[in-house]
Amino acid sequence: MNHAQNALSIILLMISSICFAQDSPSVLNGKIVTRDGIFEGIVILNTSKEISVLSDNKGYFSIRSHVNDTIRFISPNHTEYQYVVNEFDIKRSPVLFPLEPLYSINRLDEIVITKIDSDALGFTDKYTRRYTPAERKLRTAKTGGGMIPVDPFINMLSGRMSMLKKNLAYEKTDHRVEKLLETITNERLVDYYQIPVDYVEGFAYYAVTKEGIKDLLNATIVDLKELERDLTPVVFEFLEMIKNKKGEEI
Q1: 0.90 exceeded by the pTM?
Q2: d(CA 99, CA 81)
Q3: Other CB atoms closer than 10 Å to residue 123's CB: what's the count?
Q4: Which pLDDT tens digit goes with each residue over 86-105?
Q5: What are phi and psi of 96, to 5 degrees?
Q6: Residue (of 130, 155, 133) closest to 142 by Cα position
Q7: Closest by alpha carbon to 217, among 248, 177, 189, 169?
């Protein structure tokens, strides 16, 4: 009987220890690694806990996390990256997170583009469905480009479909950012909302991750009053992130 009671006590103690370990706050200490040398102002978002921080000028950051939390890295200069925290990440310091530049090619000082498309040549009308470059690539991958549909099966195996879908998602995110900055000017974001000039684009990328703002920007005609109403609490969140980041640097 005593042996059974002792065994039960040990089991209960182990369960209590596990629960305490799961409930106790943990911090993920990370460092962003990039080829382009841009480290500062990248948004690190814990989607599981709905908290976020900004990286410092060397790419370091700390964010409250538990095992299995999902971390997203959002930057106007890099492809979006998502990561699930494991038990070893909490013990390591720092954990390295490589981000790929959004545009790996060299940027030219000036490009002159002459637009000659199917509309100009008279091959389309107002009823023709128009696709963006990312949508065209995804459609070709799905349909095989009108030929024997062997490519869709191969693409599924090779992972190309997944890559094309991500590219389409990035294109849509960029479109929402452009739409936000067209609807609410840089001047208003800086003068009225007090967003620092250097953080305007980063704020736009952060704002379009919010479902309410995303839905408003997906509309053909954006409701400015609704957008500014939903944007106000996001501004406070973002400014608080900047304040905390600068406080850590002092």
Answers
A1: no
A2: 7
A3: 9
A4: 988 888 778 888 888 876 54
A5: -85, 135
A6: 155
A7: 177
> How far is residue 42's CA from residue 53's CA, in Å, rounded to a whole number?
8
By residue count, the chain amounts to: 250
Distance (Å, rounded) from C-alpha 152 to C-alpha 145? 10
Question: Which pairing describes strands 27-34 and 95-99: parallel, antiparallel, or unpaired?
Answer: parallel
Distance CA(41)–CA(28), nearest Å, equals: 18
Which of these, 133, 82, 78, lies nearest to 104 by C-alpha position? 78
Q: What is the rounded end-to-end Cα distance, in angstroms, of the chain?
A: 61
| Cα 206 to the center of its chain, rounded Å | 8
Question: Residue 75 gets which letter from DSSP?
Answer: -
State how far Cα 130 lies from the chain centre. Answer: 27
Cβ(46)–Cβ(70) below 8 Å: yes
Task: Judge contact between 217 and 181, C-beta under 8 A.
Answer: no
Amino acid code (one letter) for 24: S
